[in-house]
Design brief:
Layout: H1 2-12, H2 19-25, H3 30-36, H4 40-63
Length: 65
Amino acid sequence: MVQTALRLFKKRGFEATTVDEIAEQADVAKGTFFNYFPRKEAVFSHLAETWVAEAERKIAAILRI
């Protein structure tokens, strides 16, 4: 679902993307989406946290050199 949401956010924009579209494209029920995320913004927050964590790992690796 997360990768599907990212693809749709890139293609259609965050505002234009709906939970219905994410669930449909990810081939899950809308209820399943809500089992993992309370709203669309939570998916974006998850993506942002993942990106920040990856950036921190890369910066830490550079600083160790």
